[in-house]
Design goal:
Length: 62
């Protein structure tokens, strides 16, 4: 499987926000996330780093 876990940098610390992310879509100043179970979330953030080998998405609060 190729899903990744998403983390948000908030107050200088990484906080897990969603596991098994299947879809990540920038929407203006927000990021839309959807997991393999259909769970959805939109947050005000920007992509800081993605490591597909490590299945890790790092977002930074806007």
């Amino acid at each position: 499987m190729c899903e990744a876990n998403a983390y948000l940098i908030k107050d200088g610390q990484e906080k897990p926000i969603m596991e098994s992310v299947d879809i990540l879509r920038p929407e203006g100043k927000e990021i839309y996330l959807q997991d393999i179970f259909g769970g959805q979330r939109t947050i005000k953030a920007r992509i800081k780093q993605m490591s597909l080998v490590d299945h890790r998405i790092l977002l930074e609060e806007e």
